[in-house]
Amino acid sequence: MANPFERSHAVQLVLDKDFAGTDVRVTAGRTTMTATLAKIDPDNGSADDLGPSTLRFLTSSARHQFSFGTLQGIFSAADARLGTFNGIPGTVVPEAPRTIFDVLMTLEKLPVGLHVRGEYEYVGHKFLDVGNAQHPDQYEGIPVGEVRLAVVRPFLDGRLEIGADGMVVRGYTGQTTETLAPSWSFGQTPYCAQGSGPTGDYNDFDCGTNEQSMGIRMVSWVGGSISWRFGPEK
């Protein structure tokens, strides 16, 4: 029977300094775990127990306050290694955290009272699987790039706000690999005969030797909002 308790040790070093109104922070950390078993979000973690692992990460950020807004940049990189994986020591953890770069700007004092917020985020490629006889190259996730923009215009001393926002995105979320029936090909609905997968469920798409990388395509969008504040202004 598997042990229901797992141990984890984490150490972090944080350096924080203000340079001429710019707050700069650097964080370095190291986390060791007795097991890697967590589906934290669609782009991070594994659904299987992969054994002991070590995660090292470095995050740096800079934030500057202007008279008309703020500008912030964040860079984070992580390296997650397993104790052993398929007999190979120090293998990168499948679906582990990736390099992330993010820039955020807010503009408050614009003509006609506009407030603007813009953000760009880049999430680098990630390792998905080591591959197999039919696919000797390792599987890697596709990088994701997102541009977000929001514009808000207040009216009636701030009681009414009308805004528009949207996102332009390229990439996929939930990137992983699935082992499907040998007869499956792109364009077909994934299918496994009931009981053919490890769990025996009809929708258990792990029933053969045809491994494929999977993901949900992210879509660009645009929207609008109207908000009204009741009661006296505080």
Output the keywords.
234 residues, mainly beta, Maltoporin, Chain A, 56% strand, extended
Question: Describe it for me?
Answer:
By secondary structure, the protein is mainly β. It has one domain (11-171, 218-228): Beta Barrel (Maltoporin, Chain A), CATH 2.40.170.20. 0% of the residues lie in helices and 56% in strands. The strands form 5 sheets. Strands 1-2-5-6-9-10-13-14-17 form a 9-stranded antiparallel sheet, with no helix packed on it. Strands 3-4 form a two-stranded antiparallel sheet. The relative contact order is 0.12.
Question: What would a concise description of this structure say?
Answer:
The protein contains no helices and 17 strands. With 234 residues, it is mainly beta.
Task: Write the SSE topology.
Layout: E1 8-19, E2 22-33, E3 38-41, E4 44-46, E5 53-65, E6 69-82, E7 84-85, E8 88-89, E9 100-107, E10 115-123, E11 127-129, E12 139-140, E13 144-155, E14 160-170, E15 172-180, E16 210-217, E17 221-228
Antiparallel strand pairs: 1-2, 2-5, 3-4, 5-6, 6-9, 7-8, 9-10, 10-13, 11-12, 13-14, 14-17, 15-16
